[in-house]
Amino acid sequence: MKALTHKQPTIQVVTLDGRPKGYRLARKVVAQIAEKWGISAEEVCGPKRFRHYVACRAEIAHVLRDKLNLSLLEIAHVMNRDHTTILHHLGRLGSRSGSGL
């Protein structure tokens, strides 16, 4: 006999183009911070793992979380990453400043 599993439906607020609410603003933030670091927004969201890119991604994740109040999944969607990677970035930056999550 199989055990019944009940999955909670997830509700996500989306815009008319199907993207999460705040997506456009988040992409603008990504572009501005990437420009500050001398990297294109496409490179920041790409697969490269150079220290410079990772540090930029950590700053972006921190700003999106603190200023725009986006969830880990929303930030991950904007940056083409997994939510656990975003959690790592937030913890990493927090441990350097001593503030934590």
What does this structure look like?
The chain has one domain (23-94): Orthogonal Bundle (Chromosomal Replication Initiator Protein Dnaa, Chain: A), CATH 1.10.1750. 57% of the residues lie in helices and 0% in strands. The chain is built from 5 helices and no strands. The protein has helices at residues 23-37, 41-44, 51-66, 72-79, 83-97. The protein is globular, with a radius of gyration of 16 Å.
In one word, what is the shape?
globular
Radius of gyration: 16 Å
Mind telling me the CATH superfamily name?
Answer: DnaA protein, C-terminal DNA-binding domain
So how many helices? 5
What is the CATH architecture descriptor? Answer: Orthogonal Bundle
SSE class: mainly alpha
